[in-house]
Design a protein that fits this description.
This protein is α/β, with parallel strands linked by helices and 558 residues long. The chain is 39% helix and 20% strand. It binds nicotinamide-adenine-dinucleotide (NAD).
Length: 558
């Protein structure tokens, strides 16, 4: 590969310059727009939002660059106005998915053989397109389709996705830089191949950036990918796919295949060419896919890699020494932003009983100021939850809270799906720290609080650790350094992303690589330097320059 790379570099001095610049330059996180009234970015975004009004984009399956309108379609609707359709998307069936696999495999070798630097350039170009020409469109599609307010859409669909593509390129070029040791007899190299087969990328609704990264990172490392976008994030997924095409991802390298979830899962796990699944979504779906792979394990050409990022039951643990304002403001944001539909959202909080009255009072004061409404209203803090299924699930937890003697709803508690799937930001006190409301992922704007006896502030750490089967994010609020150290040690396995005096949401690519363990996933840390190696299959090559003159060893001499 080195010689191939060098040849390409000699042919392309501009590319060489870029690559050197990339290796030495420190890539920065994408700056965020704040979209204040009348700012140029606000004007462009308002225009992009207006362009979506009354539109229902028809989205095809794309295989080998060919758009296929299968006639078997579903609609994506606005979560905050469910009678309004925003996209009509066609679904691939089993035969079409198998055709997508076949077509992807036909371009695999040529793509894999292209130098990593060239592939990285394509994704850097995609990042630049998203940062400039397509920023208003991708932010608008995410605001409307997934009901994110402007800030949530900006940090996801613009900033995080741009960061993923830029940092993946930088990290990949850095990690493949390792040069094995040469000896006098041999020259040693490492070549990083894509996986032999195809990668299935299955994305969730709640982050446009995750969809783009689940498909993009393996592709950049030389793989061919079947990307099944989420039904409820279809318009944003389609916009990302078109940007990737414009950036130069060749036809067939990423197949855009909207499909019914189980049809997709059954088809890809039945293919002997399945090389990996890159999944983000619920535990239930990931476990199901894992089982299917297990059942088919004798049929595969290679052991499929399974990467899955799943749910969380993320905690805020408050110590008596904590700064109350940080607790209150951090909790409002992390429990209720994007209606609690971030995998990292805070959904259980532990506060000393001596402090709870004060924290509660301040929480309720701030809670009153939360404005909920259509996501394209720039003044709202939160909008509707994603769909009827989600609404029904959250509603059942609210009903449980209202009927259980252990639980007391202190704020919110109501929901209304007459126009959109709106759920009030809700705070629930519990006297039972093991109630299901403290253990299960709700994935909605519901925060459960246990006011623990202050004298038990040490024991409470173990309770936090053991209460839920998840281990995604968690935060400790304290000024007492000894407590912080004790909690950090005892909670070591309780979170893949751990925060001290900060809310448990808001990880940034390159700053806090993201992922959790236990039932929260395989913790492969998207946004970090090692993620790209998951999508490579390295070969170590020993090239011996000295002939071997005998087979006997010195110790064998009589
Ligand atoms: P989901 O499991 O319902 O769906 C995820 C994807 O899987 C969708 O594209 C869906 O169509 C597909 N799917 C469903 N059944 C399938 C099957 N049998 N085979 C193959 N694919 C199938 O999850 P969701 O509601 O879209 O997302 C919410 C979940 O994702 C929450 O649990 C959240 O915590 C989690 N999440 C985790 C992270 C993380 O990084 N840990 C990030 C975002 C979301």
């Amino acid at each position: 590969m080195f010689t191939v790379t060098l040849r390409i570099l000699r042919r392309a001095p501009r590319l060489k310059f870029h690559i050197q610049a990339m290796a030495t330059q420190s890539i920065q996180n994408e700056p965020l727009f704040d979209y204040t009234k009348d700012s140029p970015e606000r004007v462009k975004l308002e225009e992009a939002l207006k362009n979506l009004d009354g539109q229902c984009e028809e989205i095809p399956v794309v295989i080998g660059g060919e758009k296929i309108f299968t006639g078997n379609f579903r609609y994506q609707v606005l979560p905050y106005d469910h009678q309004t359709k925003i996209a009509k998307y066609h679904l691939a069936d089993k035969d079409l998915l198998n055709k997508a696999i076949e077509n992807a495999l036909s371009v695999r070798e040529a793509w894999d053989n292209r130098p990593l630097e060239e592939k990285a350039q394509i994704f850097l170009k995609a990042a630049n397109l998203l940062s400039t020409k397509y920023r208003p469109q991708i932010v608008a599609a995410t605001m409307k389709g997934q009901a994110k307010n402007v800030w949530q859409a900006e940090i996801d669909a613009a900033a995080e996705l741009i960061d993923f593509y830029r940092f993946n390129a930088k990290f990949a070029l850095e990690v493949v830089n390792y040069k094995p040791i040469d000896t006098q007899e041999s020259i040693n190299t490492m070549v990083y191949r894509g996986l032999e087969g195809f990668v299935a990328a299955v994305s969730p609704f709640n982050f446009t950036a995750i969809g783009g990264n689940l498909a993009g990172a393996p592709a950049m490392m030389g793989n061919v990918v079947l990307w099944k976008p989420s039904d409820t994030a279809m318009l944003a997924g389609w916009t990302v796919f078109k940007v990737l095409q414009e950036a130069g991802v060749p036809d067939g390298v990423i197949q855009f295949v909207p499909a019914d979830g189980p049809v997709f899962g059954d088809t890809i796990t039945a293919s002997p060419d399945l090389a990996a699944i890159n999944f983000t979504g619920s535990v239930k779906t990931f476990q199901h896919l894992w089982k299917q792979v297990g059942n088919n394990i004798q049929n595969y050409n290679t052991f499929p890699r399974l990467v899955g990022e799943c749910g969380g039951k993320n905690y805020h643990l408050v110590h008596p020494s904590a700064d109350i304002e940080s607790v209150v403001n951090g909790t409002i944001r992390s429990a209720f932003e994007y209606s609690g539909q971030k995998c990292s959202a805070a959904s259980r909080m532990y506060v000393p009983d001596t402090m709870w009255p004060q924290v509660k009072e301040r929480l309720l004061e701030e809670h009153k100021k939360i404005k909920m409404g259509p996501a394209d209203d720039f003044t709202v803090f939160m909008s509707a939850v994603i769909d009827d299924k989600s609404f029904g699930r959250i509603k059942a937890y609210l009903e449980h809270a209202k009927s259980s003697p252990n639980l007391n709803v202190v704020a919110g508690g109501n929901c209304d799906d007459s126009k959109g799937y709106f759920v009030d930001p809700t705070v629930i006190e519990t006297t039972n720290p093991d109630d299901k409301i403290m253990q299960e992922e709700i994935f909605g704007p519901v925060l459960a609080v246990y006011a623990y006896p202050e004298k038990d502030s040490k024991d409470i750490i173990q309770l936090v650790n053991k209460t839920s089967p998840f281990a995604l994010t968690g935060a400790v609020f304290a000024q007492d350094q000894t407590f912080i150290e004790e909690a950090s040690k005892a909670l070591r396995q309780s979170a893949g992303n751990f925060y001290i005096n900060d809310k448990c949401t808001g990880s940034v690519v390159g700053q806090q690589p993201f992922g959790g363990a236990r039932l929260s996933g395989t913790n492969d840390k998207a946004g970090g330097p090692h993620y790209c190696l998951k999508w490579a299959s390295p070969v170590a090559i020993k090239d011996t320059k000295v002939p071997l003159t005998q087979w006997k060893y010195p110790h064998m001499k009589e």
